[in-house]
Every structure is written in C-alpha cells, then in structure tokens.
Amino acid sequence: MFDLPLLWQHLVGWLSTHAVVPLLDLLHLRGLSGNPADIAASLLIAALQVGIIGLIFRPLETWFPAEKWTDRKLTLVDRNYTLLMLLGIFPLFTYLVLTPFSHLFGGVDTATSSTGSPLALTHWMPWFNQHPYLLFALYYLVYDFVYYWMHRTQHAIPWWWALHSMHHSTRQMSCWTNDRGSLVDGFIQSMILATVGLTIGVDPDEFAWLMLIGELVQNFSHTNARIGFGRFFERVFVDPKFHRLHHMRVDPERPTLHNCNYGQVLSVWDVIFGTALYGMAPRPTGVGDPMVDADNNYGLIGLHWVALKRFWGAVRRPAGWKPGEVAFDEDYRPIPVSQLDLNAFSHAPDATPPVATAHTTAEAAAG
C-alpha cells in the first residue's frame, strides 16, 4: 500500500544526505545551522509550493481572469523573485538565522514544549499534547491573528509602508505577487512571526507547515482570477476577490476605500474589526503614488534599491513615525496623500505618470 508519510521521510533523508549536508560542510556551516533534515524538508516544501503555483494557480489566471492583459511582462519580476525566495533566500534565512535564534529560549525541553518556551500553549494547556491537530489549528489561529495586526501596522506606519509599498506597487497582480517584497520588510515580518511561533511553542516542522499554508493561501488570493468562496465562506476565508480589493488602486472619489481586507488566510478578523469590504467588481491594482508606481520600471535590484530609499527617507524623519497614510516626494520624504492629484493619476492607468515633485505637490495641495 502506498505510504505517503514514508515516501516523504525518504525524500527528506535523501536530499539531506546527498545535497544539504555536503553543501553545509563545503561552506563550513554545519555547526551554525539547524538540523539538515529540517532544511531538506523546507526545500521540498518550497518546491511543492512552486509546483502548486505553476500548475494550478497559474492556469486559473488563463481560464478565469479578473483582468485581461495584453502581455504579462510586469509579472516576470515577481515570478523570478518568488523562485529566488522560496528555493534560496527563505530556507537559508530560516535555518541559518531563525533556528539558532530559538536557542535564546533555553533550548529544547520536551516537558514544556519543543522550543523550551515557558509561554508555550502546551505548558498552560497540556490537554493539547494528546490532540496534535487541534493544537496545530490553535497555533494557526494565533499566527493568523498576529499577521492581521502586523499587516495593518505595515500600512499605518510610514517607514514600514515605505518598504511594504513595493508589494503593492505592481499593476499586474498575479499568483507570483505574494513574495514580491523588500527583503528588509520580509526580515521584520519573519522575526515577528518566528518570535511568536517560538514563544507559543511551535517546533520547526510545524512552523514550516504553518508558513506553507499561509503562503499557499496568499499565492492563491493574489491570483488574477475572478474566484470567490460564496456569501458564507468569504466571511471566514480569504479568496482572490476579497484580497484583490486590498490591492486596488486608490479611488479619487473614495480615497480610503482601499484600506480594507488585511487578512492572510482568515477574513474573519476583517469582519470582527470592521475592515472587511465585499461586493465590489474587480478593480485595477496598484498604487496612487507616482513615486511608488515607478517600481514597475525596475527589475529585482532596482525594486529593492528604491524601496530602501523610501525607507531611509521616512525612518529618519519624524513624519515617518507618525501613523497615517502617506505618499513620497522626489526626495523620498513622506507627505500627506492629500498633496497628490489622484484624478490625474487614475486617468492614465497604463502610462507611467510623472514623479511628484515639491512644485506639483504644492500645486495639488493649493488646488
């Protein structure tokens, strides 16, 4: 009889023995990394994710497109970045940085939790040790709840938005867009989520699967497809119709409409906290800030460079720490959105608009 768990163990063992361990030895990293088997499992999970994106989500964009594009050239940078992140940067970061970081909690104590945290959920509720699936579901509730509030903060704090705006700048949101983001932004997110995971007692294997579920749902929710879950389930889970509204380009007549739908997997947090938006037709994606929209002119390196310039322009100024929605001027200083001519920008969605300058923003403010 076909044994899927046994096959998985064999694949992990083979990849660990024949690829991961030799590479770590070559780089003299054996003592600095996590368990080679965990690294191998992470790489296999990433490969599985790429396969699902390419073989399932990508065809949905052809069969049921929310937007029809004459070409997909703006999606190429997102696809390449996804492959780089999933098969390279993220596994290395996880097991060369996050796993050793867990040792700060005092190492493994199986009587408390796999991470040794005295705040582990199983320490306070030992009953869950006999119910691993319910424990995993509880882990995910905590993980998704933290993600929701972290995501809202990314939009609320100008210096963090300066980084996160790279994710929102694409005019062609697709199944590859989820991993489009500043490495600095990704580092901050990973440290927050990993710290929460270590604190509540999530072991590395479970954390990898938590990440996979979250990432796959986000790959699906970013897919350029007109797919919804229906009137009931859309109130619980995030679908492409729901998340597309989060990425919609600002409406000049209703400039705060896009401040909605922050959930990662569970839309119920948006319902509970009043940020859910339903029932609107698909809208073009992107941003209303010319400085951020200009991201579409760059490749991978250029994207990160301009995001860092926005970040530096915001984090070193008091305005970069004051919560609120901002745009950026030609010196990458955060400025009130009210200083942008949103009508002029929205009327030319397919052209790269002129970059906002101190002169034009002053004119817009005066008008």
Topology of helices and strands:
Layout: H1 4-26, H2 36-63, H3 76-101, H4 121-124, H5 132-156, H6 158-168, H7 183-200, H8 204-221, H9 230-233, H10 240-246, H11 268-272, H12 290-293, H13 300-315, E1 326-328, E2 334-336, H14 342-346, H15 358-366
Antiparallel strand pairs: 1-2
Helix pairs in contact: 1-2, 2-3, 2-8, 5-6, 5-7, 6-13
Written account of the structure:
- This protein has 367 residues and is mostly helical.
- The protein has a domain at 4-220.
- Helix content is 55%, strand content 2%.
- The chain is built from 15 helices and 2 strands.
- The protein has helices at residues 4-26, 36-63, 76-101, 121-124, 132-156, 158-168, 183-200, 204-221, 230-233, 240-246, 268-272, 290-293, 300-315, 342-346, 358-366, and strands at residues 326-328, 334-336.
- It has a two-stranded antiparallel sheet.
- A hairpin with a 5-residue loop joins strand 1 (326-328) and strand 2.
- The protein is globular.
Helix content: 55-70%
Kindly report how far apart the N and C termini lie. Answer: 74 Å
Instruction: Give the number of helices.
Output: 15
Provide mean pLDDT, rounded.
Answer: 84
Let me know the number of strands: 2
- Looking at the structure, what is the overall shape? globular
Structural class label = mainly alpha
**How is the biggest beta sheet arranged?**
2 strands, antiparallel
Percent range for β-strand residues: under 5%
Order of adjacent strands in the largest pleated sheet: 1-2
List low-pLDDT spans.
105-110, 347-367
